[in-house]
Amino acid sequence: METLRSDLRLAIRMLLKKPGFTAAAVVTLALGIAVNATMFSMVSAFLLRRPPGREPERVAVVSSVNPTPGFQADANPVSAPNYFAWRDENHAFAETAAADEYRTVSLSSQSATANGQSSVASQPEALRSAAVSPNYFSVLGVSPQLGRTFADGEDQQSRDHVAILSYELWERRFGSDASLIGRTVRLNRENYTVIGVMPPKFRLLGFTPQLWTPLVLTAADQTAAAHHERSLFLFARLKPGVTLEQARAEFTALAHRTEENFPESEKGWGVAVRTLPDFLVYTFGIRSALAIMMTTVGFVLMIACANVAGLLLARAAGRRKELAIRIALGAGRLRIVRQLLTEGLVIAFLGGSMGLLLAYWGINFLRANLTFNEAISAVPLRLDWTVLLFALAVSLVSAVLCAIAPALNASRTDVNTSLKNESRAASAGRSQSRLRTVMVAGEIALALFLLIGTGLLIRGIYLIEHQHLGFQPDHLLTAGLTLDPAQYKDPSSQALFIRDVISRLQNIPGAEAVAAASDLPATGSNSVTLRIKDQPELPANQRLSTRDIVVTADYFHAAGIPVLRGRTFTEMDSATAPHVIVVNQEFVHRDLQDQEPLGKQIRLDVPGATPEWSEIIGVVANVKFYSEETRDDPEVYEPFLQRPLPSFSLMVRASSDPNSLASALRDTVAQVDAELPLARVMSMPAIIERQGAGNSLFVNMLGSFATLAMILAAIGIYGLIAYSVGQRTHEIGIRMALGASNPDVLRMVLWQGIKMTAIGAAIGLVLALPLPKVFEAMFYGLHLSEPRLYFIVPVVVIAVAMLATYIPARRATRVDPMAALHQE
Fold first, then answer.
1. Beta-ladder partners of 272
2. Going by C-beta distance under 8 Å and a sequence separation of 6 or more, which residues neighbour residue 144?
3. 3 state DSSP class of 148
């Protein structure tokens, strides 16, 4: 310890003697450590944070595997009949719960106390909710902050009017009133008794319901037809001694048995079993993006470490005489290495401390920008002990990376040569020069690799964000609406509501067209299988599929979707009229093989609906099923009057700013039904921008990190060439005394930089060749083909490197031969 204290004192004194060198090294490392700590805070928040509850790694999530390839095809919900069968027949789980995580309820008012006295009215609000089996919370191993969870039997229709609130809803809507337990709230026009409030930390990644109600499943949910309706995620706790692999094997066998018993609905469908932490991270879909970000900042740190190592090598060269004297006085090689490593440790500690300060600001910046949807906003992003430990580990690794090569090189100092020859020319050995050249060439390779990778991703995202979606989003106002079953029990009442609302909205000043749709364009829609009349029926796992959207008559005019052939829907296409549909171009091309579509009949296998043959009456242009998707999918449009739905979106095309009609839209719906809340009243461009909001942050951060890497690499080149010029002053003076001109010296120094840059650029270019395929495998639907980047980026890198080389090269041409020779 005494030796360590001595080394630390000496390291601090030596660093204080060279404040410029120390500041450059500390700031360089601080930048590398800061970006790594900032990005790791996201990794910690999204990937490493344990879900709430008891032993979450012992909780498994069971999901369905869709035979049709697609994004996360192995994370689909499970049908209710499969839940009942697999819950009773498996031997791997001690307890199995089911949850329908994506429901919407209307909270219209806070009703009276339990004895029915004074009620307090409030504005109706649409809330995200989840319907769960009574044992859901016990399977997860969580307890409420107030009250209790669901009891056995509360999933029956006569006893299901109980609710559990999230902490956020209890705090925001009810002012953290502890007396709320036992009182009633009005959900979907019915009174529900509040029995509990969950703790603030009960948040599952990607699942953000604001309240929970019992999951009621009836006899109709156990029929063969119910196999088509998949809406439940199964949460189960493994029995003691049972492994996840054993559970997977058992459920694979159960899925095969189900497929044999119900081939019409289950043919080709499989089952996936994951631990709760793995399932949440997988379905959130952020792992690939975080992997790229961490790889990028890791390369930035390596470049920063190479720069600091270069500074330490240059400093060690200037200390060769000092080190030779210490060795001559008895200092061993290990002692020299330890001393120089201690100096690197002090630099890394200072850089880590400054890096944590920068990371604190960076984390606050990320938190302020990660608010574009509820799921992202719910993730706690902070500078916690995990991030602090990571920063400490990164600082220690940086100390080793920065100091080990200079320390080992300096420990091989030749005592006799260093003491006899005091010339500046002798201060730098060939091995040291080669080592610095290798490190700087490596910096160039990494920087070029990052720039090409970043350029590919930026270009791919740019093409996605600027593609034509197939409709006109401008001047389009939208709002979500869910009709509660208490008031709108049957399709006729739902259709009547739609007629009434649309007729009123059409009279709003500034409204050019009004429509309703089950799904807004470019926001995602459900996929169903189909059969074409007079064509052989395909096996269940090979059936054609299409996107299915239910729309009102004026939908195509309101959305601005061109009609290419035939006609669209009218008010005459009612429930009593023959069933008709409209298809898009891709449907004609892919499912009809470009045959004449008008007059053909198809049957859609819609869950919960009676299959009917429908005639194709029109063809419209392709619309992207999602704004972040580049491909075109087959789409079928059904008339709303022939298949009314309780949940849909309203669309109003405005003659000017669509947001100016928002209040009129709310008032109109309130005139028809004052207890129906509108959800997400937004313009269509705002919705599309929100869907891609993460892209801009991702691109900006990647671009910033790649630019930082290029700047650090340029600094590395400048430092190496400047140091080389300083060490070769005597040589340059002799060359100029013997007749070398300024251009000759300039070319000589520039050639050193060009050679080093070319080697690094060639290595980086080779490393970057497989990047398009790597990114396409990591990001579903991203197709990259931008060969120009492989020419543009190397040119830019070489240009930046030449600029960094030119400055010290110009300085070399100003060397005075007489002054250089006189110094010797």
1. 63
2. 137, 164, 196, 197, 198, 199
3. coil
Looking at every residue in the chain, the average pLDDT score rounds to 85
Cβ contacts of 147 within 8 Å, gap of 6 or more: 164, 181, 194, 195, 196, 197
Answer whether 139's CB lies under 8 Å from 96's CB.
yes
pLDDT of residue 460: 84
Residue 112 pLDDT level (bands cut at 50, 70, 90) = very low
CA distance 797 to 714: 9
Instruction: Return the higher-pLDDT residue of 519 and 406.
Output: 519
Give the C-alpha separation, 9 to 343, whole Å: 10
Task: Quote the longest CA-to-CA distance of the chain.
Answer: 108
**How far is CA 10 from each of CA 395, 401, 761, rounded to the nearest angstrom?**
20, 21, 40
Please work out, in degrees rounded to the nearest 5, the angle formed at the alpha carbon of residue 464 by the alpha carbons of 624 and 784.
120
State CA 228 to chain mean position distance. 30
More confident residue, 450 or 815: 450
Helical packing angle, 287-318 and 333-369, nearest 10°:
140
Indicate the pTM of the whole model.
0.81
Q: Is the pLDDT of residue 568 over 50?
A: yes
State the Cα–Cα distance between residues 309 and 402, nearest whole angstrom: 4
When pLDDT is cut at 50, 70 and 90, the band that residue 169 belongs to is very high
Q: Quickly list H helices, 649-692.
A: 662-672, 684-691
- Distance, first Cα to last Cα, the chain: 44
Return the sign of the alpha-carbon dihedral for residues 386, 387, 390, 391. negative
The span from the CA of 784 to the CA of 775, in Å, is 8
**Angle formed at CA 546 by CA 215 and CA 70, multiple of 5 degrees:** 75
Phi first, then psi, for residue 341 (nearest 5°) are -65, -35
- Rounded to an integer, the average pLDDT of 271-277 is 95
Q: What is the DSSP string of 198-220?
A: --TT--BTTB--SEEEE----GG
CA 55, CA 42: separation in Å to the nearest integer? 23
Crossing angle of helices 287-318 and 19-43, in 10° steps, is 160
Query: Per mean pLDDT, which range of 207-216, 226-235, 339-348, 809-818 is the poorest?
Result: 809-818
Instruction: Give the Cα separation of 569 and 561 in Å (integer).
Output: 13
Task: Average the pLDDT over 790-794 and give the result.
Answer: 90
478 membership: H or E segment, kind and range: strand 476-482
What would the two tokens of residue 621 be? Answer: 């242009």
What is the rounded distance in angstroms from the CA atom of residue 614 to the CA atom of residue 604?
8
Say what the alpha-carbon torsion angle 805, 811, 817, 819 is, to the nearest 10 degrees: -130
Nearest Cα to 519, choosing from 321, 417, 651?
A: 651
Three-state secondary structure readout of 752-803: HHHHHHHHHHHHHHHHHCCHHHHHHHHCCCCCCCCCCHHHHHHHHHHHHHHH
pLDDT at 114: 45
pLDDT in tens, 572-601: 999 899 999 999 999 999 999 999 999 999
Please list the alpha-helical segments (H only) found in 1-118: 2-17, 19-43, 80-89
- Tokens 């469908």 locate to 269
DSSP structural state of residue 469: -
pLDDT at 325 over 80: no
Lowest mean pLDDT among 105-109, 110-114, 160-164: 110-114
Cβ 188 vs Cβ 485: under 8 Å: yes
Exposed/middle/buried for 46, CB within 10 Å: 0-12, 13-18, 19+?
Answer: buried
